[in-house]
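Hi R.,

Here's the chain you asked about this morning:
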Amino acid sequence: MLNVVVVQGVVSRPAQLVELPSGGRLVHVEVTVRQSEGPAETVPVSWFDPPAWAGDLQVGAEVVVAGRVRRRFFRAGGVTQSRTEVVAAKGSPLSSQRNVAAILQEAISVIEGAAD
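And here is the predicted structure, written out as tokens:
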């Protein structure tokens, strides 16, 4: 089975940094992807224990994020709700071409390895 996603887009909401009870950190960010045709799509991204720069992401920053898709369920207001999001494993500002290339190569390696 394979669950790999790569998203390239623009941060559409400032990063929200959450300190977890375990001592870890979690960053939530929304990335808007503009297609050549059709409407833009906003992708929620959660990143556990991200690098420091991820907590400072501002609206308009261009990023590349690689990870997996997850649908999680939770109770809110006595009702079960769900959210589909990308759980980031790696990320980089789009301007860092070397980092972006490494992220894409790693995603390709995972996909090729699943095909074997």
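One quick note: The domain at 5-115 is CATH 2.40.50.140 (OB fold (Dihydrolipoamide Acetyltransferase, E2P)).

Cheers,
M.
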